[in-house]
TrEMBL record:
PANTHER family, per the entry: ABC-TRANSPORTER METAL-BINDING PROTEIN, METAL TRANSPORT SYSTEM MEMBRANE PROTEIN TM_0125-RELATED
Superkingdom, taxonomy of origin: Bacteria
Protein name: Metal ABC transporter permease
InterPro entries named among the record's database cross-references: ABC_BtuC-like, ABC_TroCD
A Gene Ontology BP annotation from the UniProt entry: response to zinc ion
UniProt KW keywords: Membrane, Signal, Transmembrane, Transmembrane helix, Transport
Family affiliation: Belongs to the ABC-3 integral membrane protein family.
Keyword match Transmembrane: yes
Protein's cellular compartments: Cell membrane; Membrane
Length: 279
């Protein structure tokens, strides 16, 4: 598989997965949760770097999978902690997110500084946790992204109405028989899985945009569930393919920012168009 084909598959699968969840994330006002989970993973990378200091055999480019495993564990634990705190009303969502995010990021930077102090070098590939490494994606990651996409689409297809009802009004949805607790943690896990895969490709800084812009744009056009989700997925897919192709032609332009800017441009056009129609 060529690098272009792998990039197209990864970008398309990730964008579709994010877009399918985007309508629900925007409806539930979970944009900041995505940001918090994305950055919390940096603490996991920091833990891996500290382990590399203690056990030198775990250091080096050939062990670059270890920080990524740390990112997965920290992102998952942070997501479950945020979900539990918000679900049981112990703190508002923005408070819980802020607490876990800043603690994880602070630990990650302390670990990075310790690594640099003792090794006299920066941890291998640490920038990729913020900015991604899209040009290095391979067939394995393309398959992983595709499987994630299929899992998200299947979940939305089977439970879309329950998720939509929960996102708009959790209390009313629970009173009407929706399994609110199950839906709550299911959404948390799906968002986390999407962010973990996405941050490897486009970085933790930009992956949240893929979870917000498609849904926000589509919901500005229609509040009907099928139309909103379908429009969100279609928009994200077109933006992903266009972003990959444009970035291959314009050497200084990286894929992640290209996709995000296309999505933002469409959002602006839709927003301005609605304002003009109302006036």
């Amino acid at each position: 598989m060529t690098s272009l084909a792998a990039a197209l598959i990864c970008a398309s699968a990730l964008s579709v997965a994010c877009a399918a969840l985007s309508v629900f994330v925007v409806s539930r006002r979970w944009a900041f949760i995505g940001e918090g989970i994305a950055h919390s993973g940096f603490g996991g990378a920091g833990t891996a770097w500290m382990l590399a200091l203690i056990f030198p055999a775990l250091d080096g480019p050939e062990m670059q999978w270890l920080p990524y495993c740390g990112v997965i564990v920290f992102a998952l634990l942070s997501a479950l902690a945020i979900g539990a705190v918000t679900r049981h009303g112990m703190a508002e969502s923005d408070t819980a997110i802020g607490i876990f995010m800043v603690a994880s990021v602070a630990w990650g930077f302390i670990a990075r500084e310790a690594y640099m102090f003792y090794r006299k070098a920066q941890p291998h590939g640490w920038q990729s946790f913020f900015f991604g490494e899209f040009r290095d994606v391979d067939m394995t990651f393309a398959i992983t992204s595709t499987l994630l996409c299929l899992a998200v689409i299947a979940t939305v297809w089977l439970m879309g109405k329950e998720i939509f009802a929960y996102c708009f009004d959790p209390e009313t949805a629970e009173a009407s028989g929706v399994r609110a607790g199950f839906v709550h943690y299911l959404m948390i896990l799906l968002v986390t899985a999407t962010i973990v895969i996405g941050s490897r490709i486009v970085g933790s800084i930009l992956v949240t945009a893929l979870l917000v812009l498609p849904g926000a744009t589509s919901l500005a056009i229609s509040r009907r569930l099928s139309v909103a989700v379908g429009g969100s997925v279609a928009l994200a897919l077109v933006a992903a393919i266009a972003g990959v192709l444009i970035s291959r032609q314009v050497q200084f332009l990286t894929t992640g920012p290209a996709i995000v800017l296309i999505l933002f441009a469409v959002f602006v056009v839709v927003f301005v168009g609605k304002r003009v129609r109302r006036s």
